[in-house]
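Case study 2.
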Amino acid sequence: MRLIPKQRVTWLIVCLLACVVPILAGACGSREDGKPVGGTVVIGLLGDPETLNPLVATTVESKDIINLVYMRLLDEQADFISFKPKLAKSWEFSRDSLSITFSLREDVLWEDGVPFTAADVRYTWELQTDTTVAWASRHLKDRIEDVEVVDDFTVVFHFTNRYLYQLMDANDGVILPKHVVEKIPRAEFRTSKFGRDPVGNGPFRLARWVSGQYVELERNPNYFEGERPYLDGVVYRIVPDMTTLVTQLKTGEIDCLESVPNDALPGVRRDNPDIKIYSYPSRDYTFVVWNLKKPLFENAEVRRALAMAVDVQEMIETLWGGMAQPMNSPMHPILWAHDPTIKRIEFDPGRAKKILAAQGWVDRDGDGFIEKDGEPFEFEMTTNQGNQLRADIATMCQEYFRHVGIRATIRMMEWNTFIQWVIAGEFDSCVLGWGVGTRADLTNLWKSTSRPPGGLNVSGFASPAVDSLIDRAKNKLGPTEAQPLWYRCQRIIYDDQPFLFLTVPHEVVGLNRRIQGVEPNAIGFFVNLPDWYVGERE
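Prediction:
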């Protein structure tokens, strides 16, 4: 691991090492664009990043740092369809669209001074597709049959067939330095010291990492965009307690906190004018899964009645403090293929009772709960321990269902046991969440071939029409051709209600107003961190 020479360690860094105060260095000078240069932003984290090895990392904390240390061929834009140059200065499809030629920048250096070349791109692909390395996103490269090095700054990706996401698949994953990682045996790659000692080519490089205390990045002097970043560095302070992190945000000990708790948000806004709150839809959504193999949930009319029994807007105000929006489709609304015209099933417990009665569910014994053929409408709602939000969702749903004569009991399970229970299909219903990637796809949760044990279609939903629409949409070459297919697919699923679709939570981030130039988008809050700078308070 690289260490900064002792004479460069400032008094403020010493204070950080002593865990007394954060680095809050001011700006010192400016560039031609007038933006001040210097200073550090301190970001609060609940836990250490697991690793900085890009082919091993799975947590958001690790990936946020990796994206500042390494670069991709292209910069994906917030529409999840278009791209801008990065390591590749241009790209071109072949006439048959079965290959993409990338022309690479010739002025990029790894932080150790070694030039970046096409050999790095090919070797990264070899690692990404190696079953011993076992990159979690290896399937994204399945339709890339070869990566050809033409010369030091030209590389060609060859595909098995044409489809919409060829460019995205080629671009997925940061590029690694061949001269460093080729020395690591493949069987040792996941546990090698490379995960603690990265060699990148991005705007920042690792300066120090003290487990359980902080990770410190500093400006990479070899970064090809010489005018960026504006900051001297970024410090990730590890504080494994959210209450303490909120306090440190208020006192200025940290500059930035993601996922400000809903119960703390009013106080932060009221008492801390130096903190700006950013809120925007996350890439997650929450829902209740109905096990379609259970007789209670076989009927789509019954499932629609269950949706009418739940007041989603009240849940948003109560549980998310208004920082969420209703989910009205299996396709996340940040994706270009989302159908915004789908009419959400509205809260209407009276109508829900009538639908249930029409299906034979009536309170015949006067106990306040409905039954059919002598069997009560009762089921279990399961979710994982340690997630208070999901427990609260289950509790509110339980009360809503009681008002239409349905008895729901809540069961909390340890996480690993819970997941095994869900995959095995033992549950009646369960409260879950799902985070989407940047590509429009419904395969994982909705295709019949994705049912467990081989996939994550845990509701057991199966529709030949949906299967066909998914396959056809994924093989279209452009959004214009694919969008009508995705629209039809969403409507079939939403009408069937295999999930009780609830909300898209908003990301809520608190940031000290002295940090400026911040432009978060659907890709993430830190997407333009190299453009951040320390300025006068807004």
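The two ends are 38 Å apart (CA to CA).
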